[in-house]
Amino acid sequence: MFLRIFLLLCCWLGGIVAQAPARWFTVTAATPTVDATALDYTSDAAARALRTLQDEFPGLPRHRFQIVVHADADSLPPPIRAGHHPGSPGLALLGRHQIHILWHETVSSLTAVDHVVQHEIVHELIDQLVEPHGERVPRWVHEGLAQLLSGETYLGAREEDIVWRVAVDRLLPFSGLDDDFPRRPDELRVAYAQSYSYIAWLDRRLGRQRLLATVAAIDDDMTFDRALVFATKKPTAELVTAWSDYLLHASGAPLRAVMENCFSLLMIFALPLLALAMMRRMQREQRARARLERTTPFDDDAWAGMDDGFYGPPAPPEWHHDQERLR
Ligand SMILES: [Zn+2]
Questions:
Q1: How far is CA 63 from CA 15, 125, 201, in A?
Q2: Centre of ligand 1 from the C-alpha of residue 11, in Å
Q3: Are residues 98 and 177 located together in one domain of the fold?
Q4: Does 160 lie in the same domain as 141?
Q5: Which domain holds residue 193?
Q6: 313 CA distance to ligand 1 middle (Å)
Q7: Does some domain include residue 105?
Q8: Domain membership flag for residue 306
Q9: 24-76: per-residue pLDDT in tens?
């Protein structure tokens, strides 16, 4: 009897814990074209994300937020579309407790649905963490943390793609990524890759709690850069240089980039050999064809012993020409 009551109690408590995240958000379809399955999946992913993120953001969320699922980027209302980065599967409207998921872009992106939903929820939680100074969190800090804490980058951004920029001093200045990200697809991908790499490096250096505490310290008088200088006891320029050195010499990204392009490089080196082999083959085929044309129709022995009246295959045009000339 006691065992049954205990089990019932466990199930009841388990149910409460499992359902708890769902009371913090609502999931709605922007248009009737959004499938009910997409809503269910988004809702489950959001509940999982909140459970995963509760250690990083204790006590949050403190405000309910809304998740709106759109069919695709083209169906976004114009005011929201203006803030959307091309190719990105979602966006969070900070200060308005709104997340917008673009279902078509989400399922066809390189990032899994769970990671997309978790990425956007990280934006919402950072905004609530720094409230009421959320708008002072630099964009690159938002995107770096959202990618780090969701376990995947956006647009397939990778350190391998930016490591050559370190070598030729072509990284995008972080100061230019404070308010917004570039619109050009190649620069947008670089911005995501840089943000992820630098924040992941700071995370390893400071630890997760200190990094998030540095973000939480932002207020009217404290910028993220300043808070970071206090946390690391290093000036911003020195930190960026140290990260660049890590990227170039200790991240393994240059080797990964070379290995990835190894096949292409091998193909480039193999091209002259392939061309030579093809030329030799063409020459061989040309010689064989010439030999065939020269021998087959005029080989008298090949037609020896045939019945009278069998004259063999049609003679080549030159032969007729010669016969006419003889006549
Ligand atoms: Zn984002």
A1: 22, 9, 30
A2: 36
A3: no
A4: yes
A5: 135-278
A6: 76
A7: yes
A8: no
A9: 999 999 999 999 999 999 999 999 999 999 999 999 999 999 999 999 999 99
